[in-house]
From TrEMBL:
InterPro entries: WRKY_dom, WRKY_dom_sf, WRKY_plant. GO terms for cellular component: nucleus. It comes from Amborella trichopoda. Residues 57-78, 200-247, 493-549 are annotated as: Disordered. Residues 495-531 have a biased composition (Low complexity). Keywords: Coiled coil, DNA-binding, Nucleus, Transcription, Transcription regulation. Residues 232-247, 535-549 have a biased composition (Polar residues). Residues 276-342 form the WRKY domain. The keyword Transcription applies. This is WRKY domain-containing protein.
Length: 549
DNA sequence: CGCATTTGACCCGCGC
DNA sequence: GCGCGGGTCAAATGCG
């Protein structure tokens, strides 16, 4: 098929949706036959080279009634015919008079160029229109999402306030009035706005304070064993009123903190692997170490921290070095902060919250949803992976930031000052990243903070976490969102001084049986590898120890 | 002296 | 029932 003909046909297709707009044809008419510019559609075609193709013109005029709407198929055919006519006419011109052949050739070339230009311009216009349409669509979706989210937040707020009132009543009945019960309502509201996605514990828990989430699964809601001195000391005032004195002895905060319910949401974890020489990455929060254990299979001890930025904050984290690469620090976050966070800490908090929501918010966010390669279209070429494990009891999202291909992605817009800005991705940025591969500028949501991971003045994990958070929280289905997150992770500088400039970030799907192949996305059951990355270093499974139990 | 860290003991779930 | 391992507690200790 002739190249030109192909081109014209394509332009015809471009404009077919916009009935009546026949820019390419009109442009040709400008060049060849200006007399009928005002006519539209096939009228112009008919007049195309009218002096030489009257036969065809008459033929086509008879074929196609002009009154009816444009028929795409017919349009295509006619345009094809028109091009044949065009070529024939040019040929005749070139051969007709030798003296003018050169001039005619030049004019032909000029016309061709102009045609091409016109076509390109037409395509440009078309793309602009399409872009505007898509943008409008996106804006609409974002608006809808925001509206829904705000509704959800307000609903949760109401629910929390109701629960708070209930708790106050209980406390009053027991003769103990917990200050937290008064404060928690506000706290939770803050947290919800802060985290963008209120986590499941807040939705399912009848009592509102986030501290309840803290208590581990082993803490049973009813103290059925009196001989357990510690258990009776540390907890459950609202269910077992006899413990109130003990709780006072232990301190109100602890009592509230340990008040718990077996909330599955507590299990949701976000594990971040990052290279850092420091014993602990700085994520903007204040942590207090409350324990250290030697983990099995890892000579490096595992440290346990809890957030001390606010009394009773349920957030905890575990820090452990990777057994095989001591420079890799694995930090696992758990829970949601119940207090406002500084900008530096917002990213991580949002990430953990979003990850918890992601992992626990139903089948669409489970690992199953990630089995489809369409969720990671970029992975084979960009070597970036999402790690999700929705498996019970500890669904875990693992962000592997130890391998980064792009050391020069430090430039990014200055973060906004407000620590409470929603990390909601705005505009098409996230889709830009998603669709068009690695973008060097991180799509940070505006409220996210400057970097505080690792050594000062270093670019930090915060970028990655922010982007991941934004991505996760932006889309309840976590499709494009996940893609965007991972894509943005690729653009995040690693957090250490490091010597690891040439690797890609990877996220991993971790399996319940601790089969952490960092090159694969595995299912919970059969460890089916969806997307492999043979080139990535195989990291020891002990590096992500929290996905299993 | 107050706060944070250390560290041994304890709790609990799970597998055998 | 017992042992193992993960997680937490809290007294002891360290530090500014
Ligand atoms: Zn906190």
């Amino acid at each position: 098929m002739d190249r030109k003909e192909m081109r014209i046909v394509d332009t015809g297709e471009f404009y077919r949706p916009n009935s009546g707009v026949l820019l390419p044809i009109r442009v040709n008419s400008d060049d060849m036959d200006l007399s009928n510019k005002e006519e539209r559609g096939s009228i112009e075609e008919i007049n195309f080279f009218s002096n030489r193709t009257s036969f065809r013109q008459a033929e086509k005029a008879g074929e196609v009634p002009e009154s009816s709407g444009r028929n795409p198929n017919l349009e295509s055919d006619r345009e094809g015919s028109k091009l044949i006519d065009l070529n024939a006419g040019l040929h005749l011109m070139a051969n007709s008079e030798n003296g003018q052949s050169l001039t005619n050739r030049w004019s032909t070339l000029d016309q061709n160029n102009r045609n091409e230009m016109a076509e390109l311009q037409a395509e440009l216009n078309r793309l602009n229109n399409e872009n505007q349409q898509l943008r409008g669509e996106l804006d609409r979706m974002v608006k809808n999402y925001s509206a829904l989210h705000m509704q959800f937040v307000s609903a949760m707020e109401q629910k929390n306030q109701q629960a708070s009132n209930k708790k106050e009543m209980i406390d009053d009945k027991n003769g103990v009035r917990s200050p937290e019960s008064i404060q928690e309502g506000n706290k939770i509201v803050e947290q919800q706005f802060l985290d963008l996605h209120p986590s499941i514990e807040e939705t399912t828990q009848s009592e509102n304070n986030a501290e309840e989430v803290v208590s581990s699964k082993k803490r049973k809601p009813v103290d059925e064993s009196p001989e357990r001195e510690r258990a009776s000391q540390t907890w459950e005032p609202s269910i077992n009123g006899n413990n109130n004195n003990k709780m006072l002895k232990q301190g109100m905060m602890k009592g509230v903190e340990e008040t718990s319910a077996m909330n599955p949401c507590r299990k949701a974890r976000v594990s971040v692997r990052a290279r850092s020489e420091a014993p602990m990455i700085s994520d903007g929060c204040q942590w207090r170490k409350y324990g250290q254990k030697m983990a099995k299979g890892n000579p490096c001890p595992r440290a346990y921290y809890r957030c001390t930025m606010a009394v009773g904050c349920p957030v905890r984290k575990q820090v452990q070095r990777c057994a095989e690469d001591r420079t890799i620090l694995v930090t696992t976050y758990e829970g949601n902060h119940n207090h406002p966070l500084p900008p530096a800490a917002t990213a991580m908090a949002s990430t953990t919250s979003a990850a918890a929501s992601m992992l626990l918010s139903g089948p669409t966010t489970s690992t199953d949803s990630l089995h489809s390669p369409q969720f990671f279209p970029f992975l084979p070429c960009q070597s970036s992976m999402a790690s999700l494990s929705a498996s019970a009891p500890f669904p875990t999202v693992t962000l592997d930031l130890t391998q980064n291909p792009n050391p020069l992605q430090f430039a990014r817009p200055a973060p906004l000052s407000s620590p409470f800005a929603l990390p909601l991705p705005t505009g098409p940025h996230i889709y830009n990243q998603t669709a068009y591969g690695p973008q060097k500028l991180p799509i940070l949501p505006s409220g996210l903070a400057p970097v505080q991971f690792g050594v000062p003045n270093q670019p930090s994990l915060t970028d990655t976490v922010s982007a991941a958070t934004a991505a996760i929280t932006a889309d309840p289905n976590f499709t494009a969102a996940l893609v965007a997150a991972i894509t943005s992770i690729m653009g995040t500088p690693k957090n250490n001084n490091g010597n690891n400039n040439n690797n890609n970030s990877t996220n991993n799907i971790t399996t319940p049986n601790n089969n952490n192949n960092h090159s694969n996305i595995n299912t919970n059951t059969n460890n089916t590898s969806i997307i492999g990355r043979p080139s990535s270093p195989q990291l020891p499974q002990s590096c992500t120890t929290f996905s299993t139990n």
